[in-house]
Amino acid sequence: MLLVIPAPWTATSFYRWMASRLYVPGRPNIGFTGQPLDIWYVFIAIGVLTYLGGADLYYLQYLSIPIQAVLSWMVIRWIAANLSSNGQQLPISFDGSALGYVGWQVLMYISLITIVGWAWVITAWMRWICRNISGTHREVIFLGSGLEVLWRSIVFAIGCAFIIPIPWVLRWYARWYVSQFALADRSFIKK
Question: How would you classify residue 54: left for phi > 0, otherwise alpha for psi between -120 and 50, otherwise beta?
Fold first, then answer.
């Protein structure tokens, strides 16, 4: 991803790998059918903005926050639209608005001022994302709490400080985070 040009291929490969490891009851062989050139310009722009974030131009860094949020929103929509089961496209979509996603991203950056409030913002943001996934018989939910995200993130950061345990703490953290997403019967019928 850091080389920018191969970003569409590396991202697509990662999403294929990630989807192949998902287990959804009643949906065997989850896969990802997206192609690298579907939204190549989004991944190139994300790569370029990553370098812009490292530049010494503070006003451009702040301007890039909503741009990066819109690009991330486009990636989420693309991922949801390209999930499959047994090679058949699933009717899943992410219906959250771009403006809503930008709002959550900005709120997350603002919450960093509170030192710990970001964990609750991320938890609420994950729940908002889940509520905006449509096309499923069951509702996608996020079970984690702000406190659980906070203490696990702190332990993850401490583990990464020692460099050698990074792969193990990353796996521990990622497994917990993914395990917090679940499917539940829809409690109401949307009109």
Answer: alpha
Mean pLDDT for back-to-back runs of 10 residues, the chain (191 residues): 88 95 89 96 91 72 90 98 95 97 96 95 98 93 98 97 96 95 76 45
Find, among 13, 11, 31, the residue nearest to 21 by Cα.
31
d(CA 22, CA 29): 8
Q: Within its chain, how far is the Cα of 151 from the centroid?
A: 20
| CA–CA gap between residue 98 and residue 170 (Å, rounded) | 29
Q: What is the pTM of this model?
A: 0.90
The conformation of residue 27, written as its DSSP 8-state character, comes to: B
Residue 158, both tokens: 């401490």
Tokens at residue 131, please?
A: 């509520």
Each as own residue / partner, the long-range contacts of residues 152-161 (CB below 8 Å, 24 or more positions apart, any chain) are 152/176, 152/177, 153/119
Q: What is the DSSP letter of 112?
A: G
Q: Tokens 């608005």 correspond to what residue? A: 97
Q: Find the largest Cα–Cα distance for the chain.
A: 52
Q: Are 101 and 73 in contact (CB under 8 A)?
A: yes
